[in-house]
C-alpha cells in the first residue's frame, strides 16, 4: 500500500491554490495526498518590505523545517521565493509548466498618470521598485505587503495611490485580476516568476519518483538558467535582479538586469544559444554584469545597512574595490585634486643631465605640455615603482628609483653625476629631497608641474580606519576630521605625516594601493 503524500504549503489563498494543483496532479497519477497548511514568517511580518527583513527564503524556511522534521513529505512553492541554494537534504523534485511570467500594473480609473511627472505606485518588491523608478524617476514608490487580496484592498483604500504592481500569474490563478490591469512587458520579471516548484527530501525515493511525472522540462531548463544567474550575482529578494529565459525555435533566449535600489543605475545583458549548447548562458551573463560594475552595485546593496568602517582618501578602481575582505565596509573619494600647470618651454629646450620625478602627476603634466621627443633627459630619477613604470612607458629609461624621496636624495648625494638637478614637483612638495641635496651642494631647480588642492570631507563617525597615499591626503583629511583613527599608509613619507596626527600608523609592504588594501584586510580578518 502506497503511503499518503503530505503536501506542505503556506495558508494564503494563492499558496493553497498552487498546492491543490499539485494535489490534483498527484492524485490523477494514483497517489493519496493530504494538504498541510503552515504559516511562514513572511506571512506574519507585514509591516516591513521584504528587503528590510534581511532573510533569504522568508516564505520557504518554515516549510523546510517542517520537511526536515518529517512533518510533511513535499512542499509547494512559488519558485521565485525559493533561495538558489536549498538546505542540505532537500532537493527540487519537480517544476510545473510555467504560467504568465509578467508583472502586472493594477491601476485606478485610467492610465493617464503614466504620462504625469508625479504618481504613487505601491510594491513590496525591490526589483519592481527599481525598474519602475528607472523608467519613471520622478514617481514615488511606496511599500505594499500582504497576500494578493489584502494588497488589492490596500490599493483601493489608499486614495492617493495610482496603482500597484502584482505578479500576473498570482492574480490570474485565483481569478481576481481586475479589468483595470495591464501587463508590464518592459519589466524583467523575478527569476523563475510564474513557476511552481515542489521540494522533497533527497532520501525519499518514493516521493521523488512520484513527483517526476509532474516535471515540465522546458520550464525546468529556463528557470534553472534564471536561478543560476541570480546565484552567480549572489542575489535574493534583497537585490533588484530580473531574469527571463525562454525557448523559441530550438534556441534559448535570455535577458537579465541588475539595478541600483533607486533605479538610477542599470546593467542589462542578453544572450541567445542553441538548445543543448545553452549551459554557459547564466555564467556568461552574470560575469558580463559583474564586469560592468555589477559587483560594486551588489556590494553597495549588501552594505546599505552596514556602517562604513574604512575610508579611502583616494577613489578606487572597480578591480581594487573587489579586493576587500567581506568584513570591510569601505567608502572612498579623492581628498586631493590635481591641476596640471603650463610648463614654460625654456625648462626643456636643452638636454637636462639630471631629472627628478616623484609622482605620476608630474609625468602627466610633462606629457600634456610636450611630446616625448622634446623631453631630452639624460638621467631620470624616480620615486615609486608605478611612477618608474609610467616614465619608462612614456618618456625614457629610469636610471634609478627609490620608494621614498629621502632615500632617493641620499642615493643622489652618493652616486649622481654632476652637481645640478631639475625637480618636476607639486606646489605642496615635501622639503626632504631638496633640503638633503642642497646641504650636499647639489643645486636644485624646482619646476612646479602641477598643483595639489585639498578637497577633503567629513567622514562618518563609524569610520575606524583611513587609507592615505601621500602626505597631502593626510593634511586634507585632518582639515575636516579630528577623531583618532588607524592610519593605513602607502609609504614612510606618508606615514611620517600621519604620525603627527594619529597614534596608530601602519605602513604597507610596498607602495601600491593594493598593498594598502592588503594591510586593511589583515587588520579586519
UniProtKB/TrEMBL annotation:
Pathway(s) the chain acts in: Porphyrin-containing compound metabolism; protoporphyrin-IX biosynthesis; coproporphyrinogen-III from 5-aminolevulinate: step 2/4
The reaction(s) this protein catalyses: 4 porphobilinogen + H2O = hydroxymethylbilane + 4 NH4(+)
The protein's required cofactors: dipyrromethane
Enzyme class: transferase
SUPFAM superfamilies in UniProt: HemD-like, Periplasmic binding protein-like II, Porphobilinogen deaminase (hydroxymethylbilane synthase), C-terminal domain
Record keywords: Porphyrin biosynthesis, Transferase
Keyword Nucleotidyltransferase: no
Known role: Tetrapolymerization of the monopyrrole PBG into the hydroxymethylbilane pre-uroporphyrinogen in several discrete steps.
Oligomeric form and interacting partners: Monomer.
Family under the similarity heading: Belongs to the HMBS family.
Name the record gives this protein: Hydroxymethylbilane synthase
Species the sequence originates in: Mariniflexile gromovii
Gene: hemC
Amino acid at each position: 500500500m502506497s503511503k499518503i503524500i503530505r503536501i506542505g504549503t503556506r495558508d494564503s489563498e494563492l499558496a493553497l491554490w498552487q498546492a491543490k494543483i499539485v494535489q490534483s496532479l498527484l492524485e490523477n497519477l494514483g497517489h493519496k495526498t493530504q494538504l498541510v497548511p503552515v504559516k511562514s514568517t513572511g506571512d506574519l511580518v507585514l509591516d516591513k518590505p521584504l528587503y528590510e527583513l534581511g532573510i533569504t527564503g522568508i516564505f520557504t524556511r518554515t516549510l523546510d523545517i517542517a520537511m526536515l522534521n518529517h512533518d510533511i513529505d513535499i512542499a509547494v512553492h512559488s519558485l521565485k521565493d525559493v533561495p538558489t541554494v536549498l538546505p542540505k537534504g532537500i532537493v527540487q523534485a519537480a517544476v510545473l509548466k510555467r504560467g504568465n511570467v509578467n508583472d502586472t500594473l493594477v491601476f485606478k480609473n485610467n492610465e493617464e498618470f503614466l504620462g504625469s511627472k508625479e504618481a504613487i505606485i505601491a510594491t513590496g518588491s525591490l526589483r519592481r521598485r527599481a525598474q519602475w523608478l528607472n523608467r519613471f524617476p520622478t514617481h514615488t514608490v511606496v511599500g505594499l505587503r500582504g497576500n494578493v487580496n489584502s494588497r488589492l484592498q490596500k490599493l483601493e483604500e489608499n486614495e492617493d495611490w495610482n496603482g500597484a504592481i502584482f505578479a500576473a500569474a498570482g492574480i490570474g490563478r485565483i481569478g481576481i485580476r481586475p479589468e483595470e490591469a495591464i501587463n508590464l512587458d518592459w519589466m524583467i520579471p523575478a527569476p523563475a516568476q510564474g513557476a511552481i516548484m515542489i521540494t522533497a527530501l533527497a532520501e525519499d525515493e518514493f516521493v521523488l519518483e512520484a513527483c517526476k511525472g509532474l516535471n515540465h522540462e522546458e520550464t525546468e531548463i529556463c528557470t534553472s538558467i534564471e536561478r543560476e544567474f541570480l546565484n552567480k550575482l549572489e542575489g535574493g529578494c534583497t537585490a533588484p535582479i530580473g531574469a527571463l529565459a525562454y525557448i523559441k525555435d530550438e534556441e534559448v533566449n535570455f535577458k537579465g538586469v541588475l539595478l541600483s535600489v533607486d533605479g538610477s543605475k542599470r546593467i542589462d545583458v542578453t544572450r541567445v544559444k542553441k538548445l543543448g549548447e545553452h549551459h554557459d548562458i547564466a555564467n556568461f551573463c552574470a560575469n558580463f554584469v559583474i564586469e560592468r560594475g555589477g559587483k560594486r552595485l551588489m556590494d553597495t546593496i549588501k552594505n546599505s545597512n552596514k556602517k562604513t568602517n574604512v575610508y579611502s582618501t583616494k577613489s578606487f578602481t572597480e578591480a581594487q574595490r573587489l579586493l576587500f575582505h567581506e568584513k570591510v565596509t569601505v567608502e572612498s573619494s579623492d581628498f586631493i585634486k590635481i591641476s596640471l600647470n603650463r610648463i614654460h618651454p625654456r625648462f626643456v629646450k636643452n638636454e637636462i643631465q639630471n631629472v627628478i620625478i616623484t609622482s605620476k602627476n608630474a609625468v602627466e603634466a610633462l606629457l600634456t605640455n610636450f611630446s616625448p621627443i622634446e623631453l631630452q633627459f639624460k638621467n631620470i630619477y624616480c620615486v615609486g615603482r608605478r611612477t618608474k613604470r609610467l616614465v619608462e612607458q612614456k618618456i625614457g629609461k629610469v636610471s634609478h628609483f627609490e620608494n621614498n624621496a629621502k632615500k632617493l636624495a641620499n642615493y643622489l648625494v652618493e652616486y649622481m653625476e654632476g652637481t645640478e638637478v631639475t625637480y618636476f614637483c607639486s606646489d605642496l612638495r615635501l622639503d626632504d629631497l631638496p633640503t638633503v641635496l642642497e646641504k650636499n651642494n647639489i643645486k636644485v631647480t624646482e619646476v612646479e608641474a602641477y598643483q595639489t588642492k585639498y578637497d577633503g570631507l567629513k567622514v562618518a563617525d563609524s569610520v575606524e580606519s583611513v587609507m592615505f597615499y601621500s602626505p597631502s591626503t593626510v593634511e586634507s583629511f585632518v582639515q575636516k576630521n579630528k577623531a583618532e583613527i588607524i592610519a593605513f599608509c602607502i609609504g614612510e613619507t606618508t606615514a611620517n605625516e600621519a604620525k603627527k596626527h594619529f597614534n596608530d600608523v601602519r605602513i604597507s609592504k610596498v607602495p601600491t594601493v593594493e598593498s594598502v588594501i592588503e594591510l586593511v584586510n589583515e587588520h579586519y580578518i
